[in-house]
Amino acid sequence: MDSVFSSSIYQFTWSRICAYLAGTYAANGGRTMTYSAWKAQACLPMPSVSMPLLARFNIIPPSSGVSYVAPRPQRVIIAGGTISAIALSRNGVTFDNTGQTSGVFTLGAGDQLQMTYTVAPTTMVGSDLQ
Q1: Which candidate in 22, 35, 90, 124 could, as Cys together with 77 as Cys, close a disulfide (CB 3.0–4.6 Å)?
Q2: pTM for the complete prediction?
Q3: CATH code matching the domain that covers 57-128, chosen among 3.90.550, 3.30.70, 2.60.120, 1.10.10
């Protein structure tokens, strides 16, 4: 199995997808389904394949105007508070204003996120990216 599917979460999801495909193949009398046949059945509800959310945890936001430096690739969620600006830097020198005062920001290792606020927001790391 490919290393992308090495974790138990992906193995579980992959096995459910394979089971669905095998069931569809069997229901079609063991024949390969053509595109037009698939399109005709596309209105049927698909089985739900759910994946658990990865852990998230709150982080204490740095002081207003001070950068948060991502130690590894991750998503940072910013909500609430009274924020006037959020800026992002990929090189630690040039900060670009995002035009947002809340949201989900995808950061690479070493990227910096800088918030200007009067009331501290709730800041969470949503998930590490691999």
Answers
A1: 124
A2: 0.56
A3: 2.60.120
